[in-house]
Amino acid sequence: MYRSNNPDAPGHHMDSHTRVTYRRNAGFLERIGQSLIGILVGIGLLIGASVLLFWNEGRAVKTAKSLDEGLSKVLVMDNIFGIDTNNVGSLVYLTGELSTGKKPLVDDLHHVTVNAVKLQRTVEMYQWVETETKREYNEGGQTRTETTYSYDLEWRSNVINSDSFDNPVGHKNPRVFPVESKSQVAKPVHVGIYHLSDGLIDQINEFHPIPSDLLPVPHGGYLLHNGMYYMSQNPNSPQAGDIRVSYTYAGLSGESVLGKPEVTEVTSDVVSVIGKLSGNTIVSYESDHGYHLLFLYMGRHSPEAMFAKEQHKNTMISWAVRLGGWLLMFIGFGCLTSIIRTLVDWLPIVRELVAIGVNMMNLALSISLSLTVIAIGWIAYRPLMGIAILAMAATPFFMAKYRSRGAHGHRSYE
User: How far apart are CA 228 and CA 343, in angstroms?
Assistant: First the structure.
């Protein structure tokens, strides 16, 4: 009953086995050699992280200034069915319904037809998937490794090579798909009389499934089940090698009722666009700071709202890169200080205390160095902000020096 109601749920066919292997633990001199290699890796990570953080700050500032520039220069085009030659070459904003002409997109497999900017056919095969889990146990001079290989049937859109499984017997997958996934893009795409460039069409990515009642009758041995075409004896209990095909669309246009069965008139999606007007085509606009402005959002949005969304996106990207740069810094310092842990590894209690101290030191160093690099990046664009961040980076060192002097003065007094 469970499999009938939940044919996609993993675990029903799962089986597993475990292999045990042993390896000799590295000796003291070998670990020293590995730590020396780790120092070189750590230096490389610190250099890479510094370059990444410095580049990110410059990118963030230039992007923010470019967006401010764009908001101050953008021209609103109220009439999307007439060309104003005075706006050619300018940064413009327009909003309206998508149009792809009278010729719809048609899939050649099941003859699915839709008036949309994009039509996507996704083909999946029910295949065996191997999952590997390792557990290691230190047994003095050697390490015992228990590797558990688990097998389960799952729907996958790419071929899983079962020949590379640890135990391929009983877990064979077909080598090829009988039919491939396929994506179609309509061209040209218009809003009013204006062409959308490829950069704007690429941003139309809100895909929606085609409702079952609007899909053509299956043929060629396929069954229609839950909005998908199955090549299977029983879609509720699929077997290895079974196929299912699903269809999604993005950017509805023309006379179509997809997604809105209760509506019988034109239901084109509305988009809001910002870019440079070149003839009757909207292309990328290059700001004075070298940043390219070309945005498309689904629905009606004001220019202010669109630029606010882009500023928010820029902020999120900036913080994500900062976090990634700091993480690389932390790992880099960990590689640099690995030799300290190696030297005391043979002392059970001491090595735990040293590891805690070293990790705390690595944390402080990575934060301070990250802030220092970020501050240097900001000094070139916003000096006051850069100096403030640089002061924050130096705070841990000043505090450590102050505590050291305090402790020395206390001992002298005694």
Answer: 61
